[in-house]
Amino acid sequence: MPLSQLNDWLTKNDSSTAEVAQEPANGDGAPNSSVEQDSYLQEDHSEEDEEEDGVPNECKKKKSTQSEPPRVGLTKLFKDRIYPVGQEVDYVGTSRMSSAEARERERLAQEDPSTNYQNIRRAAEVHRQVRSYARKNIKPGMSMTDIANMIEDGTRALVEENGLESGIGFPTGLSVNEVAAHYTPNAGDTKVLRDTDVIKVDFGVHVNGRIVDSAFTLNFEPTWDRLLEAVQDATNAGIKTAGIDVRMCDIGEVVQEVMESYEVEVRGKTHQVKSIANLSGHSIAPYCIHGGKSVPIVKQFGSDQDNEKMEEGEYYAIETFGSTGRGRVIEEGACSHYALSREQPERYTLHHQSARSLLKSIERNFGTLPFCRRYLDHVGEKNYLLALNTLVKENLVTDYPPLVDPQPGAMTAQYEHTILLRPTCKEVVSRGDDY
Ligand code: HZT
Ligand code: MN
Ligand code: MN
């Protein structure tokens, strides 16, 4: 990613202080505006005290700013319901940006509520505000449960969680060290983050089924700085390569090339960073975290899907994983992540009432969105483990166990963004001033 391009975007989009119409002192009586929530509203008067900069005070918009911890719903910060646009990137070597036909298709997409970009942009702004707080406040010594609650309480409040209309997109991934993905604590987990750890924070936000899937990595010791740099660079290279009519295999090749140009020195030993070969990015469909297409992160050798391409209108999670270990993951450890199976068996018999009622609860509370055991606790389910295992055995629910690089001492990192392949340009909707 050329830094100049990123900087242009950053100056155009300062999402840290959303400028909005001023909130009336006692709220507007809108539904969901509890006293506690309004008490979090803090006005930023810092710019109205004096006319030091020569700009008359009347010309300065008042700002409502996010609280700490973040608890102000985004519809209160963006009263006109227009949310910040992500990083817009031109498609290289095409005339799509100026094409009248492409611009018309984009105008039509904006009018249709099911393709309106405000849903995904609202989810993305929630992601940026929640992760800004998380990045500053995740510290060694915290329990994994405290970290998960910090992120999930923020997400629920900012997205104004409302049944299946808006909420958490998938379980908060907090995978540590050799665990690359799909760890989140279950109830009773006492694991604590340590200062030698490398943690992948992967969380999701959805609005009307449009899911933002974005992740970053944190380390607390300089040993792993280069590993994180490698993976951030590789993800940005993947994002740059992505586009309409681009072959999936071309993205894998570029990502691996960038990833494997990095070395990490640990206690006098040099490791070449490896792209984790059996992990990938993916398309995203409404209420469906895996839309059906995978985005490889290594060069593909003669597969049948060699000619599969990205298409106009699709949403993608571009994610890459680097490892100092084997560069492949296996499923290992206690499972926390689950989702209704993509293809439900045509006929089945559940002998236990508990399994039938758990299935109904999952359908009602999560639909096809992934969930974790803590989210079952959250909706009031109790003693559900036997029933959950039955649903997995019957292929009604799919389990997603932790994904681990089994080489002793392996360290892994991840960066991920959600992008939209709009008719006229590529939008990196989850881009922020952090990554
Ligand atoms: C599965 C279950 C979840 C999708 C990627 C991913 C987190 O590894 C095709 C390509 C949440 C997400 C997913 F609970 N997975 N992105 N962020 N995990 S995946 C996948 O299963 S399927 C990658
Ligand atoms: Mn993710
Ligand atoms: Mn993903």
List keywords for this structure.
11 helices; alpha+beta; 435 residues; binds manganese (II) ion; 3 domains; single chain; 4-stranded antiparallel sheet; disordered N terminus; binds ligand HZT; Creatine Amidinohydrolase; 7-stranded antiparallel sheet
Task: Please describe what this structure looks like.
It is a single chain. This protein is α+β, with helices and mostly antiparallel strands. The chain folds into 3 domains: 3-87, no CATH class; 118-330 and 407-428, Creatine Amidinohydrolase, CATH 3.90.230; 337-400, Arc Repressor Mutant, subunit A (Orthogonal Bundle). It is 29% helix and 21% strand. The chain is built from 11 helices and 21 strands. It has helices spanning 3-12, 35-40, 74-77, 100-111, 117-137, 144-158, 225-241, 248-259, 353-366, 373-378, 385-393; strands at residues 42-44, 63-65, 87-89, 166-168, 173-176, 179-181, 198-207, 210-219, 263-266, 269-272, 274-275, 280-284, 294-296, 315-323, 330-331, 337-340, 371-372, 397-400, 403-404, 412-421, 426-428. The strands form 6 sheets. Strands 3, 11, 12, 13, 14, 20 and 21 form a 7-stranded antiparallel β-sheet that branches. Strands 4, 5, 7 and 8 form a 4-stranded antiparallel β-sheet that branches. β20 (412-421) and β21 (426-428) form a beta hairpin.
